[in-house]
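Chapter summary example: a protein plus L-Erythrulose.
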Amino acid sequence: MSKSATIKTALAVAPENALMSAFVVFRDKLETSMIKAAEMGYDGVELALLSRDQVDLKSVKKIMKETGLEIPMVSTGQIFADTGVNFTHPEKEKREKALTDFLGLMEAASELESLVNVGRLRGTLNEGSPSLDYFNEYMTRALARADELGVTIALEPVNRYEINFLNSCEQTAEVILNLNHPRLTMMPDVFHMNIEDPSIEGSLWKYADLISYVHFADSNRWAPGRGHLDFQSIVSALKQTGYKGYVSLEILPYPEPDLAAREGINTIRKFL
Ligand code: LER
Ligand code: MN
């Protein structure tokens, strides 16, 4: 991914056949969403995908060229949302399927020169999988392939109401430092941080060296400005840490998709 001089903005979108559980503002033909995002002033589009063959990468690259948009992130939560496969599933077959599908998306990320995330795909610890052993095993295998492909993985803390481990930045930083791999980074999401972290700005400072990408949504997952998070203070903290990556709006399409996408970037831009 290209290095920018300042923080850039992205919009998370999904293809028109995406599952209802995709947390995206546009669920449409990628061409349509990308052109709209570029017109609204976004620098990039994050693709929430279920499988490698869901997208025609050639046509995505063509639109990237025409619009100047980057694809900074391929996000993978749909793999989990589709059939519940994940890296800590008690059944080996389900863990293997999660890895196979994830590696497929990692190949797409490699072609697009983007990051790839692990959020809900890590699954949930339970009686059949009580420790971090499976998680560590599957992340290690994913990281070996990431090395070959030159892709960086962004591990996302996700709040306790969606999954039951690595909920806060502190917990996530601990496993990242433990796995100790140059291609493993952290991707905080301020929506989850609002639930799990003692201070959003404090965590952005504390874990700045690990952070490669940030998800933005307001406290209710609507566009920034529609809830009670203080984006002026959040953006200011990010800027002060010297962060030069993307902030990506992973927001619900309310009250209406175009309005949400437009309002979101307008709110953030005031502070960038
Ligand atoms: C899930 O809540 C989320 O924030 C996604 O980015 C991770 O799958
Ligand atoms: Mn997120």
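Key point: The pocket of manganese (II) ion (ligand 2) is lined by residues 119, 156, 189, 215, 250 (CB under 6 Å).
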